[in-house]
Each structure stands twice: as C-alpha cells, then as structure tokens.
Amino acid sequence: MVMRKRSFALTVYLVLLMLPIYWLINMSLKPNEEILGALTLYPHELTFQNYIKIFTTPDWYQGYINSIIYVGLNTVISLVTALPAAYAFSRYQFIGDKHFFFWLLTNLMAPPAVFLLPFFQLYSTFGLIDTHLAVALAHCLFNVPLAVWILEGFMRGVPKEIDETAYIDGYSFPRFFVLVFLPLIRSGIGVTAFFCFMFSWVELLLARTLTTTAAKPIGAVMTRTVSASGIDWGLLAAAGVLTIVPGAIVIWFVRNYMAKGFALGRV
Amino acid sequence: MSRIVLDQVAHSYLPHPQTEADWALREMEHVWEDGGAYALLGPSGCGKTTLLNVISGLLQPSQGRVMFDDTDVTALPPQQRNIAQVFQFPVIYDTMTVAENLAFPLNNRKFDKTYVKQRVEEVAQMLDLEGDLHKKGARLSADAKQKISLGRGLVRADVAAILFDEPLTVIDPQMKWQLRRKLKQIHEQTATTLVYVTHDQNEALTFADKVVVMYEGQVVQVGTPQELFERPSHTFVGYFIGSPGMNLLDCQLEGKEAVVNGGRVPLNEAAAQRAHNATGRLQLGIRPEFLSFDARGQNGLPVRVEQVDDLGNYQILTVRLGGELLKVKIAEDAEPPGEDGSLRFPPDWTRLYANGQLVG
Amino acid sequence: MDRWPDHKAWFLVLPVAVLVAFSAIIPLMTVVNYSLQDVLGGTYFFVGAEWFEQLLHSDALHGALQRQFIFSFTVLAIEMPLGVAIALALPRRGWQVSLCLVLVALPLLIPWNVVGTIWQIFGRSDIGLGGWTLNELGIAYNYTSNSVDAWLTIVVMEVWHWTPLVVLLAYAGLQAIPDAYYQAAKIDGASAWAVFRYIQLPKMRGVLTIALLLRFMDSFMIYTEPFVVTGGGPGNSTTFLSQYLTRLAVGQFDLGPAAAFSIIYFLIILVFCYVFYRALEGIGKGAP
User: What is its main location (chain C) (predicted)?
Assistant: First the structure.
C-alpha cells in the first residue's frame, strides 16, 4: 500500500517535471499559425520546418558549435588544472592549504553578475573579447573550484598506500599519476567532467557579455527570434529543444555515476 | 523464549530456481533447542546469513515453515517475531545517546518508562557500558558500538533468540576475545538461545555448545565440538574443521581392509561392513593428529617425508604415500624424521566416506 | 586520514592558483578600485566610501535585498522537503533507477535562458498549457501584469528547475546507507517515521547541508531565468539583486555604485558561505 502511494506520488512529480518540456517540444513541431490559434495538446499540422531552418542557417547552427567549443575547452582546462591541485589537497599538508581551499570555494559562490564588468575590461585588455577562450576562462571562475572539490573527494577515497607502493616500485611522480592514479579515479573524472559541462553549458550571462559575433553562444542567438513583427515561437521552441539534447546525451552516459558523484564532496 | 523449528525450509533468491545451485538454502529440517548456544559455521557464501535472515524474518523463505514453539511465524515480519539480531557491522543510531540506543527497541514497543530505564541499566551493567550511557553514539569506538548493537538485542527480555551475524569481524583481536567471553557469560546468566554465525572455526568451537556446519546451502552436521572433531559426518566437515584438516584418500575395499595406493589399511569390522553396502566414490579419512609416524619405518605403510614444519609446540610433517600427500601431526620432542618412514592408521580413528557422507 | 606534510605541494596547486587569480583576484581588485572612485570624462576621482553610503540608504537596493531574501527562503522551504520526499520515493534498485534519475536530472542540464523560455511559454494564457489551464479553471492568471502571479511563476519555475538537485543529493545520501541499518531497524521494531528520523535523516545530513549551501547560493544569484520570463517586472516586483546590479552596471553604466554594490553583494554571500563551510567541517569531524 505504502509502496503504491509512493510510486504514485513519484509518477505525478515526474509528469509535472516533464510537462513544460513536453510543451516546448510540442510547440517546436507546430507552425506558428497553429501555435497562435486554438490550444492543441499535440501538433495537428506536424512540421519540421523550424528544425530545418536552424540546421540550414549558419547563424543558427554556428551558435551551437560556439557553445560546444567553449564548453569543451572549459571542461579540459578545468580538469587539467584541477587534477594536480585536488591531489595536493587530498595527500599533502602545506602552508595555507585550508585557507586556500576555502577561498576556492568562495569563488564557487561568487555571483557572475559581480564579475561581469571587470571581466569585460580584463579580457578587452588582453584582446580576448569575442573568442571561445574568453568564455572558457571566465567559466573557470566557478568550474575549477567545483572540479577541485569533487575530485578531492574521490581521491581521498583512494588509500595512500597505493602511492607509497608505487614510489617504492620506482615510479616517478608524473608516471605514477598518469599510469596508476588517474585510472583509479576514472569515474570521479567522468563525474567532474559532467559537472563542468553542465555548469558551463547552462550559463549565459557571462557567455553573452564576453562575445559579440564570432563566438556567440546559442542562448544569445535565440534572441533573434524576436523581431518587429513579434516572436517566432516555433523557431524559439525548436532552438530550445535543441539546447536540451546535448545535456540529455551527457546525462545518459553518466547516469550510473550521478548519484555517487553528488555524494562525494569534501564532507 | 522458545524452541525454533525449521520445517522443510528452502530459499532461492531467483524467482524460478532450476538447478540445485540456484538454491541459496536447500530444503532442510532443523531444530534450535530453547536455551542453546549454537554456532553456525561454514565458508563464505554457504547460506549462513540467508538461514539467519529466514529465522529473524528479514527474508521470507521460498518454501517451508518457521515455527516458534507451536506458532507458525513464517509470514510474520521481524517486528512481530520477538527476535533480536546483531549484524556484522555495528549499527548505531548516531544522533541518540547510548542509553537512547539501548532503549530504542523497547520504546518502539511502547514499554513502560520505568521498566525501560531499569532494563537499560541492567544491560549497560552487563556490558560494562554504565560510564558511556550519556555519550552520543557517533563518538564511540568500533567495539563499543558493537556492544551497543548487542545491547539492543539483550535489552528485550522476551526474545525467542538472539542471532549474531559474524558480529566480531570489525573488532580488534584482543577485544574479540573479551566480547566472546562476555557473550558466554551472558548466555549463562540469561539462558537465551543464541545463534552465532561465523566462518572462523576457533570462534565457533570456543563459543558454542553445539556447532551447526553448513556447506553449499545445506546443514551437513550438527554436534558438539568434540563430535565434529572425532566423527565428521561429511568430508567437508573433516576438511573444514581442524588445522590442518582431515586427510582424505581415495580407496577401495578388500575384505576388512582399505586399499590406498597399493598399501593396505586395516579397518574396524563394523565400519568395513557398512562400507560394503555403500555406493559411490569411497574415501578414507583420518585426522593428522591420529596418524602415527614411525621414523624407523618398521610399522605400517612406507612413506617419504617431503616437508617438516615446526609450529613451536608440535610439528607438521607432509609425507608422500604413492601419489598422495598427507599431513601428520607429531610431538615437538619426537625423534627428528629422516627421509623415509612409515605410517600406521589406527582403525578406531579411520573413517570411511561414500560420496562425501560418513559410512563407517 | 593523515596527510603528508610537504610544502612543495604548492607546485601542484599553482596552475589553479594562477588561473583563479586571473579570473577572480584581478577582476575583484578592479571592482574594489571602481567602488572608491568616480569617473567624469575619462578622469577618475577618489570618492572614498561615498558610493557605499549612498547605496546603504538606497530604497531600490533595500527593496531588491528584501525580495531576494524572501525569494531565497521561500524556494528553499519548498525545495528541501520536496527534494527529500521525492528521493525517498525513488526506487532503490532495478532498471527504473536509471530512467528516474535521467528524467529527474534533465531540468538541470537546460541552459538557464531556455528554462526561462520554457516557463515564459508555459505560463502564457494564450499559447501556454499552464497559463491556459489556470484561466480555463476560472483563475485570472497573468504573470506579465499581476505581480503576485509573476512571483508565483518565478517560484514555481525555480522549484521546477532546482528541486532535482536536492533530489539527486538526497538520493545519493540514501544510497550510502548500508542495508544493515534498515534490517536492524526492522528487528528493533522501528516505525517508518522512526527510520526516517533516526537513520535516513542523520545519514543525509552531510549531503543536505551541501544541497542547502548550493541552493542558497544559486537562488541568491538568480538572474537569467526571471530576466527572460518577467524582465524584473511588473514594476520591480521580481527584480532581485543580480538584476539590479546588472541594470546598474550594464544598463546605466554607473560603475561606482555598481562596484560598491558588487562588494556588498559578495560580502553577504561570503558570510553565508563561511557559516555553511564551518557547518560542513563540523559534520566531517562528527562522522566516524
């Protein structure tokens, strides 16, 4: 009885969770006349016109490519810098380690709005505005601390004896780190990459401010649907649906690690 | 307190068991007498924990009935069974104090406040926990935590039995010994039925009045430690109990003698008679302690000494008899063996097994 | 676990330190610099604490701050219990686990402006299922003109968007509880409530603190989603701190006040972060 009630509540929650997404998909498959006409629960005049337009207009699909480039770049930078740092925090005691760790965490909490203007000026000085690198670096503000945090949790779960044995066996530090240690925390790296991808993919405020045309993210391109003649709802919805797809694919790959990855932080 | 009867109980974790190996517990009849101290002994994966969970009600057996005295409790959940169980890893309610932990099983059953307080104090005294009663559970050491888990089992005066599932695995060796003694004392004081699961034969033999040996989902022998040692009813028991285990040799029967690798071993008349009626693979079993080794090679079958291990208060010889290796236990001060010698098999200690089962 | 004392470990941390210095310290210094100066035709004047004084007496800031706190506490009060309840209802093993987790996590992977778009559409009374249904039921609902409706829309959107994070964290905490605890509770005759109160809740304390920390910070910094849905309106009714700051900095280009405001904003968050961090440390020590 209790189980029945529970799964009923769960089903209701999942349906409510999916409803707005369903509505977006529903709209993306309708022509604008049907959208603005009487409300229909499923597309009566099914059309892929909105999607075709996005895939054939360079301005549109370039937005997706830009987003994927800077997200990928950010994930790589975050992982490469965070891995040795997380190792240091999990294995060594050094001057100021606790303060530094806390300071890193505060960056995780910094409101992007605060950094908007200084970022713009800083990157202008270095001539980085409107490059993928600018957005990738800006997102490091919160992704690097996050990566250090998650990875440190995973690394602490690996016994120190493994390091000691490897050193006794004559491994140098870089060889040990790459050949022995990294394979041990594979799942941790996967989970971290997932989180870096996620937070970089969903952020728009910084991404939009630091780009103008060449590296413009899809989120900013979407504002093009608003014109003098009103909003092209179908196109907007189709663009929105397409931004959900990469996330959905990534979730599917890490689904088995997800619950575990969340639990391992520096607790 | 009550007598616990397992009537044709069997369990499989699969929905449709096909072969014998699909059954975690094969059909069994077994009685746990009221007030006994039992050890349930067997290797990992032999079904010990499954059997325990069937008794406590955490598992519903696929078939058969579980009876507490004359009551059929098969369908009852653990809450309604009056049974206590202590697990391998200490289970402690972190946010409660030690006293609250101990009182928890009683409070859940809405016992009277003054009675609960009195029981908690009694149990705390039994387990030497009086000083810790007001500490938070989370701050205690592993053995103190396990004592509290134990205490939660003892606090209920009405339980039919207390089941222990390898409770001392995470405890330091020194504490292990103390806690086991404590358990024995408690058993003497309260006369509650105790069932103690372990894969450690020393633990089983020192703790229990009766040892139940399990192997591949079956109970293969129930007996006192002495019976298990002297008359193992299954080759597995012979091999599993004792250090080193029983020597087992394939043999044929010729009259009143067993033929092993061409050598002849005399048998008891009765044993030989029963073995004649048995079918299947015939094995001769004898414990290393009962073999007598003669370094001059005058008595018994000729053997070659392969290895000598001095274990301080006795020596273990590994000797070759034809194609087979045997272990022999000899006294520390015995004559140092040369390369050759001979073995004598005392007929009273020589057992015969057909398809693993004792025949004589 | 004892760690090896070795100050050379700083070399391993160096890349992160450099990177974060570049993306945090230098920008922050610029902000501090601006907050103390005024710009007139390209020349800078030192104005000391003037911007801070001006801001601390600004009604617009007080309004935004007040709305921000009410908003953050409201969504936390809904998301935390709801997330825990959903996590308890999730199946513990079997193929359904993956399916449920993927569905639950989906909103987290949607770009924030698209989250805004989804609810902007869903809440409209002409083309959105949600708004249309409410109006059909006889409830006059319009988030663009009625500030209560706008508030409700933002809160519902936030709950929709972020409760999954709490669910996943709480679920991870539940998964980490060994079966023996549930078995012992059964033997001890504990009720479902007692199991929750004495086993599940204490074991989830760590992850729930993280959830609380992350959710508080993120809700406190909310910008994109309400910007897309309501643009801060009607009036200022859904203008939260980030909107206000962005308007000040980018819209009106008031660098001084914007910078001073940034610092106050950051300090508020820092204080909360510190409190949470200490709480986390305390839990870390209490655990066995």
Answer: membrane
